[in-house]
């Protein structure tokens, strides 16, 4: 199997002297190149390639083979998602090539303190950054320092020449300190203890099972599933925890360390290649007992996986939309099945998919009913923007402003949530009505005032903010329409000039260090008012935060896709859950134009179960997921005409059968994306009918002209 989008593995001749077995990593000729591949299986019964056309394996690479369970997982994902298996395999192959890699790194010279040697050596900001990266003691390679301290390699060389840095051998394989399952952890409440006991038994039973662990935000679910992990470690086995956004998990990591007296291994796409190699190897050798990671950690070569945890299982971030389109939560369940281990899905607001699996008896269910330590759930109230309107050109209602003032006045913290980056989502000419649009996408350009640019959030296209309208050339006629966090920050700055403000958005807080620093500053009460995008909704625990204001609670409902209401409830409930996590009670204010909407009612009444039941009642009759299956076909082409032709061909050859419906073709909401014209079709089947064979046959009936593409998205989450 080669890591390319071919339909399947290729045949090669085994030369004299080589004895490759399935799983071995080999070097093979492909056209005029040499490529790394994996021996997939013994040859099947299909027609053998004639002897004279066979080419020979060049070498077996001296590296651990790809495990059987990983190969079966890859086959399974490829079949389920209709992806070429080589493309899926690529995700598992990103590391094992054991290039020797650098063996030397840098540490601070013993005589160097943070300020260099006073009077002797000039310390530029760049040099200071390098020294501070090395403060923690672990030596780093030049490449790592270049990346982490954002300096050039010349800066490092200069520092070495100046005697600020000393070369030092890198540890051959950073040993992961083993987590101690019997390290004294918190004593669990009765509810926690009984849930933990059930999970420990599931781990000890060494059989596949899936359990939903739910309970309100702050009910102590994390402490409970850490006990399942402790059990796996106690048995000398491994555990995998998937988190939706590992960069925002500094608090989670310190929690883990407090419980186990050691840090877990971390896996995500931002690791340096050395750390990746070392971690991969430690996992393969069973020396990394616990790995916490992003989606891609699913493909790590655990020899003895004892449990798989998916925290915040409802998060759409688990769906990978680029390359192989797969849902990491669902694949984690498959992974657990292949290694006969329990999967634990954790959320305060579980997805309807998971709830339906619980109701059907396929998944077990553990529930924590109350917040830990007597903290109460926050009071949630709607502010009707039609009655309590913000001042003209402003976005915060008088009631919300008053509540923020009170909260800060009491020495507590407040948070404003708006799920939109930048200053304003639309720029409009007041004279001619021209709207600033992306030339490559069906999307408005979002103003980022601080950076003086307009930016497309789909393709990244940016232009400087124009001085005059590009259409009518009027000067000073462009107006910002609607708010983004930047604009809310500006408004808050005028209203609360003395409040210490902190903005948390993915573009202002790139990377784990910035997020960890923000969390630290909030915990240390160095901040009065936090203003953020969905980053702030994550599992943060800020004990002094007692007020959350949702600037635009209606925002997520506009898209109108299948899960718009469900997702809005989940997101807003998560944001609301940041308030009042310690003694002082919390208050959440939702600014909305439709307080009577079922989503707002569910949040205000705190009755998520009733809401999910009504969602279920809406979806069940039409066989919408999870009571039926969906697959999307996304047609794209260079021109609108070509996209229409291909979409029409697919429409005309669409399958007809009992329990099978095809919707579309229709222009995608993002009708143009990165210059490609897009159309969508949706295949919907009853739950007892698999979509894959239908899709395979259907796609086999149409020929795709050059420049055209059909992308398949099984179980779509996004409908754009
Ligand atoms: P959830 O994951 O359900 O949102 P957490 O596990 O984050 O809840 O728990 C909320 C807070 O309560 C955390 O600060 C956690 O450390 C604390 N906590 C939970 N259970 C216990 C316990 N048994 N003893 C002490 N502190 C606990
Ligand atoms: Zn664009």
Molecular structure report:
The structure is a single chain. By secondary structure, the chain is of the alpha/beta class. Helix 1 (68-81) crosses helix 10 and helix 6 packs parallel to helix 7. The longest helix has 15 residues, at 190-204. 43% of the residues are buried. The site of zinc ion has 8 residues, from loops.
In short:
This protein has 720 residues and is α/β, with parallel strands linked by helices.
In which range does the helix fraction lie?
25-40%
Quaternary status of these chains? single chain
How do the strands line up in the largest sheet?
8-9-7-10-13-6-14
Average pLDDT figure: 91
Low-confidence sequence ranges = none
- Classification by helices and strands: alpha/beta
Query: What composes the largest sheet?
Result: 7 strands, parallel
Intertermini distance: 33 Å
Strand element count: 29
Shape: globular
Rg computed from alpha carbons, rounded to a whole number of angstroms = 27 Å
Output the number of helix runs: 19
Bound molecules: adenosine-5'-diphosphate, zinc ion
Portion in strands: 15-25%
């Amino acid at each position: 199997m080669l890591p390319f989008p071919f339909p399947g593995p290729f045949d090669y001749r085994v030369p004299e002297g080589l004895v490759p077995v399935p799983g071995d990593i080999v070097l093979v000729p492909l056209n005029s190149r040499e490529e790394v591949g994996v021996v997939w299986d013994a040859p099947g019964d299909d027609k053998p390639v004639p002897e004279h056309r066979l080419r020979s394996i060049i070498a077996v690479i001296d590296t651990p083979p790809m495990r059987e369970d990983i190969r079966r997982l890859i086959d399974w994902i490829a079949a389920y998602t209709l992806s070429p298996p080589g493309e899926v395999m690529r995700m598992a192959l990103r590391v094992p090539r054991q290039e020797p890699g650098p063996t030397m790194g840098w540490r601070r010279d013993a005589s160097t303190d943070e300020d260099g040697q006073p009077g002797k050596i000039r310390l530029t900001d760049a040099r200071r950054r390098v020294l501070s990266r090395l403060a923690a003691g672990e030596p780093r390679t030049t490449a790592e320092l270049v990346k982490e301290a954002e300096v050039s390699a010349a800066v490092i060389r200069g520092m070495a020449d100046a005697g600020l840095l000393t070369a030092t051998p890198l540890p051959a394989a950073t040993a992961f300190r083993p987590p101690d399952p019997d390290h004294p952890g918190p004593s669990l409440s009765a509810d926690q203890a009984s849930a933990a006991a059930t999970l420990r038994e599931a781990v000890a039973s060494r059989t596949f099972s899936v359990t939903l662990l739910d309970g309100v935000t702050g009910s102590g679910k994390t402490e409970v599933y850490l006990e399942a992990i402790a059990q796996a470690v106690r048995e000398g086995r491994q555990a995998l925890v998937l988190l939706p956004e590992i960069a925002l998990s500094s608090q989670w990591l310190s929690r883990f360390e407090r419980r186990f007296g050691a840090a877990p291994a971390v896996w995500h796409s931002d690791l340096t290649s050395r750390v990746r190699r070392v971690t991969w190897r430690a996992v393969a050798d069973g020396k990394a007992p616990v790995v916490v990671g992003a989606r891609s950690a699913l493909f790590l070569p655990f020899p003895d996986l004892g449990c798989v945890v998916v925290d915040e299982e409802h998060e759409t971030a688990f769906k990978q939309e680029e390359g192989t389109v797969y849902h990491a939560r669902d694949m984690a369940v498959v992974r657990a099945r292949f290694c006969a281990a329990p999967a634990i899905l954790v959320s305060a607001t579980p997805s309807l998919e998971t709830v339906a699996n619980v109701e059907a008896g396929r998944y077990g269910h553990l529930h924590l009913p109350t917040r830990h330590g007597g903290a109460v759930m926050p009071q949630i109230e709607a502010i009707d923007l039609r009655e309590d309107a913000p001042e003209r050109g402003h976005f915060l209602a008088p009631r919300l402003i008053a509540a923020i003032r009170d909260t800060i006045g009491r020495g507590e913290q407040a948070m404003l949530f708006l799920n939109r980056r930048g200053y304003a989502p639309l720029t409009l000419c007041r004279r001619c009505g021209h709207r600033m649009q992306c030339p490559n996408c069906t999307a408005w350009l979002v103003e980022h005032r601080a950076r003086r640019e307009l930016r497309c959030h789909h393709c990244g296209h940016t232009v400087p903010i124009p001085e005059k309208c590009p259409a009518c050339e009027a000067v000073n006629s462009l107006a910002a329409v609607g708010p983004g966090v930047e604009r809310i920050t500006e408004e808050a700055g005028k209203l609360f000039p003395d409040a210490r403000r902190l903005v948390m958005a993915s573009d202002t807080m790139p990377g784990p260090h910035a997020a960890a620093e923000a969390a630290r500053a909030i915990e240390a009460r160095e901040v009065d008012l936090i203003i953020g995008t969905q980053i702030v909704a994550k599992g943060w625990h800020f004990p002094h935060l007692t007020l959350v204001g949702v600037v635009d609670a209606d925002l997520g409902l506009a898209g109108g896709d299948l899960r718009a209401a469900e997702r809005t409830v989940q997101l807003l409930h998560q944001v609301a859950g940041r308030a009042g996590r310690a003694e002082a009670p919390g208050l959440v204010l939702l600014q909305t134009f439709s307080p009577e909407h079922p989503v707002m009612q569910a949040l205000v009444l705190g009755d998520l179960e009733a809401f999910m039941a009504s969602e279920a009642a809406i979806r069940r009759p039409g066989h919408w997921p999870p009571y039926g299956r969906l697959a999307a076909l996304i047609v794209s082409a260079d021109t609108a005409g070509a996209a229409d032709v291909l979409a029409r061909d697919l429409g005309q050859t669409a399958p007809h059968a009992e329990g099978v419906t095809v919707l579309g073709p229709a222009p995608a909401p993002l009708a143009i994306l990165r210059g490609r014209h897009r159309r969508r079709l949706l295949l919907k089947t009853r739950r007892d009918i698999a979509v894959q064979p239908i899709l395979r046959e259907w796609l086999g009936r149409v020929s795709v002209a050059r420049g055209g593409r059909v992308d398949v998205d099984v179980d779509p989450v996004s409908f754009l």
